[in-house]
Each structure stands twice: as C-alpha cells, then as structure tokens.
Fold this protein.
Amino acid sequence: MGKDVIVACDFASAEATYAFLDRFTGKKPFVKIGMELFYAEGPSIVRGIKERGHRIFLDLKLHDIPNTVKKAMAVLSSLDVDITNLHAAGTVSMMEAALEGLTRPDGTRPLLIAVTQLTSTDQAAMENDLWIREPIDQVVMHYAENAKKAGLDGVVCSPLEAEKVHTVCGAGFLTVTPGVRFADGDIGDQKRVMTPAAAKKIGSDYIVVGRPVTQAADPVAAYERCVHDFVD
Ligand code: C5P
C-alpha cells in the first residue's frame, strides 16, 4: 500500500461502472465502491471489479450496535476487498467488534478505516444538527484517536486534517481523504476541499476522487491529472 488515487465509482449500475472502467485501457485504478453501487448490484459487483484486477475500497460506512457490525464485517471480509470502513461515531467498542469480525481465521484482514466527520459536514452543521459544540478539528482528532485505540489502520478525513492526524496518531496511521477538487473545478456538496497537489503536500496517503473524474469530459485525462499532481 502506498500513495494512490482512489476513484469513487458512484454509479447506479454494474453496466455504467464497467463502461466507465473500460475507458481505462491498460490502467487499473484503485476503485471505491460506495453504497449506491453496492446496494444496486450486491456482492457480485465487488467480485467482478476484483476479477478485473482492481484494488477495492468498499465504502459502506457501517454504524450499528457492535454485534451487528461484527457480523456484517465478517461477511465483507469474505469479499476480499483491500480497504473497508465504518463510522468512528459508533464508539470504540463498535470499532473493536468490527475488527474482530473482519479478521479471518488465518489472521489476515482488509484494512479498516474510520470516518471521522464527513467532508460534507462543516462546523455549523455539526453544531446545529449533531449538537457537537467542540471545534471540528478537535472532534476529528478525538475520533481518530478512538480509531487508533480500537486498533484500526487509519481514518477517512478531510485533506485539511490529514497532517494533524499524522501528528496525533503517527505517520503510519493512514489518512484517506475525499473532498478533493481541481482548483478550476466545481466543489458540489463538499465543503472542506483541497487540490490533489495540496493533499500531496500535507501528506495524505490516499485521495478519493469522485465527480472530478467520473463527470469529466475525459475521465482518463482527469484521473491522470490527479495521479500526476498527487503521486508522481
Ligand atoms: O464526487 P466526490 O469527489 O465528492 O466523491 C467523494 C466520495 O467520497 C463519495 O463517494 C463520498 O461518499 C465519499 N466520502 C466523502 N466524505 C467522507 C467519506 C466518504 O465524501 N468523509
């Protein structure tokens, strides 16, 4: 695992996803499968993309009682994805149970990372909707520390917070950062955003890029621009 660009394949069907991936002749981008695609197509989409040779981040953001999450993670573990995730808001016990469920009898498991605060959430939404009054960066750090305490491998966070997460939790603690936009592109519903080049500078391990690639007139060129700015 090293620095890489993960493409969020937020499509509604296997057909649309494969049509998109077919454009990447000779390249195998790291793919993120989210709720929309997984709920539409089920586990077969994970197996299908894996068979094509892509690494997969299965982004289902589990959040439930520890026992339920543990059992769900055991199912996801059998799909042989590379990374999966949950909400740190589910508590340390829930994260510990998840890790237990994810670990196969031979001790291997996919990487498990925790969502701290969604990149579409800002300070005002956190205070007004969630009734969390502390500054958002402190909330993110607290959730990251909880994830580390539970034994997880890293967090999903805004690129704006990646550097501090590394300071607080260590350089080896993964930061996977959505909310990435080109300087000349649309922000959409994301609120805390950064360019691929800036995300590289502050030390994100992986950037997750959706619409700037999937909705681009030339998705392959947009992906290559991300790789050039973030990895090369
Ligand atoms: O299209 P866009 O680049 O905004 O896509 C970002 C992707 O990352 C989406 O699939 C979204 O669900 C996901 N994500 C996020 N913020 C988080 C966790 C995941 O935007 N905190």
Notes: The chain has a mean pLDDT of 95. The beta strands are 4-8, 30-33, 56-62, 83-87, 111-115, 154-156, 174-177, 206-209.
